[in-house]
Design goal:
- By secondary structure, this protein is an all-alpha fold.
- Among the domains are: 41 residues, no CATH class; 182 residues.
- The protein contains 19 helices and no strands.
- α11 crosses α15, α16 packs antiparallel against α17 and α16 runs antiparallel to α19.
- It starts with a helix and ends in a 22-residue tail after the last helix.
- The relative contact order is 0.10.
């Protein structure tokens, strides 16, 4: 056997611990094998060039989608209709002026915690067109980073990323609205899902930090704190709780009146939406219940209790799959549960269908992401029905606006509820499937890479 062949064969041996020795990741083993061949690692310049080439097509498609999806928008001259980004900038401007960010002029309210308004201040100080372009590019890079973390590489990432941006409704609508949903998903995924890094090196921030920031920007990612506690991943849970609390308290110190107003209204159950919570693109469990049974106080209470049950099932499913070593799938299920359980989840919020679809395709194979457990055909069918429904959005053909949703017949309500029905079916099926299969036992002096405990390698 030649020296090159011996070194290549040594990759497998280097990754496996002999007699209970220290676990070596496959990346570390590969680096050792490459070094023994006398081959240097790719330079930073080469990595940057490759990354730019991969991202070029998706960025171009993203700019086209962001600027031309809504009527009246154009790419040349640059004139997108990013109504949500305009709300963010308006909130930042009002905050600078000392006004009430939760009573903005116009029909669209600002619904995020005060920390999000603080982050919006730089958007005010930057020219509008530049903000729109940079925001779109950031969204495109975020969805590519999520797909990369779930195992999509090279030209496949470039082409499939462009296709996702163009065809997947939650993604293209998020870019067109100038929404931040993609960025929130990326923060959680890059924080909690082990996987390859574009640039080599250890993680800079402790696990839980990015999730805490996502939770401080919007409350929905708070479901991941429950997942980390129950998994259990005590250190990551502690980091998430401490960082989230610290960011909130610092924000309170900077804008005390605004913070008191937001958290006080939230404590009294005021979402800031009023009757628009029943608007047809709100695909949450709460919205479905209120569209069917009305907007009375007892109905609202029952809807919230049902949402809590759905969240509980989602966290249960995530924990079961985490303990099986399927970290990528676990985090994804938790993300889907958060969408269904949140009182407000517009159809373009469902960006989690992208990583969920990649889980169905089985692209996630990095150590710590997955043990390679095949999903049965019946579960894949259920999952693809959910993904297909979210992407196709058939409910958008229903009559809508002006609370006409409260007058829908049973067939219209059934169509509008299918996102939540199929999503809940996915969560319940995940619990059933996980409980039918034996749990992976993690033991020894070092945790197995298949037990979801390789965050230190990221």
């Amino acid at each position: 056997m030649s020296e090159n062949a011996e070194a290549a064969a040594g990759v497998q041996a280097a990754a496996a611990p002999p007699g209970g020795g220290q676990v070596v990741s496959s990346d570390q083993a590969l680096v050792g094998a490459v070094s023994s061949l006398g081959v240097s690692r790719p330079s930073t310049r080469a990595l940057v060039t490759r990354t730019l080439v991969i991202c070029a097509l998706p960025v171009l498609v993203g700019l086209v989608v962001a600027s031309t999806t809504f009527q009246g928008g154009s790419i040349l001259p640059w004139h997108p209709i990013m109504v949500d980004l305009d709300v963010y900038r308006q909130a930042g401007r009002v905050l600078l002026e000392g006004g009430d960010i939760y009573s903005l002029p116009g029909s669209l309210p600002f619904l995020y915690p005060p920390f999000a308004a603080l982050l919006a201040v730089p958007l005010v100080l930057t020219p509008r067109a530049l903000v729109q372009i940079l925001w779109t590019v950031a969204g495109v890079l975020a969805i590519l980073a999520v797909m990369h973390r779930y195992g999509v590489r090279g030209w496949v990432l470039s082409v499939s990323g462009a296709a996702v941006i163009f065809f997947v409704e939650p993604v293209n609508q998020t870019l067109a609205f100038g929404q931040l949903g993609i960025i929130l998903v990326a923060l959680v995924v890059l924080d909690l899902v082990p996987g390859p890094r574009i640039f080599p090196g250890r993680r800079v921030l402790p696990e839980g930090t990015l999730t805490a920031l996502a939770m401080a920007i919007k409350l929905t990612p708070g479901i991941f704190l429950l997942y980390l506690i129950a998994a259990p991943k005590h250190r990551a849970a502690l980091v998430t709780a401490v960082v989230g609390a610290a960011v909130t308290l610092v924000t309170w110190a900077i804008v005390p009146t605004t913070s008191t107003d937001f958290w006080g209204r939230l404590a009294h159950g005021d979402t800031g939406l009023g009757s628009s919570i029943v608007y047809y693109t709100n695909q949450s469990v709460v919205a479905d219940v209120m569209r069917i049974f009305g907007m009375g106080k007892s109905v609202s209470t029952a809807a919230l209790l049902l949402a809590v049950v759905v969240a509980g099932v989602g966290v249960w499913a995530a924990v079961l799959w985490h303990r099986r070593g399927e970290t990528a799938f676990a985090v994804t299920l938790c993300g889907v549960a958060g969408l269904l359980a949140s009182p407000v989840s517009w159809s373009h919020h469902f960006v989690w269908v992208v990583p969920f679809a990649l889980c169905l395709l089985g692209t996630a194979r990095y150590p710590g992401q997955s043990t390679g457990t095949p999903l049965p055909a019946w579960f894949k069918i259920t999952g693809w029905l959910f993904v297909g429904w979210v992407v196709a959005v058939p409910f958008k053909r229903l009559p809508n606006g002006g609370n006409v949703e409260l007058t829908w017949n049973w067939a219209q309500n059934w169509i509008a509820s299918m996102t939540a029905v199929l999503g809940t079916a996915v969560l319940v099926s995940s619990v059933v499937l996980a409980r039918r299969q034996p749990r992976i036992q993690c033991g020894g002096t070092a945790p197995s890479a298949n037990c979801g405990e390789v965050s230190r390698q990221r």
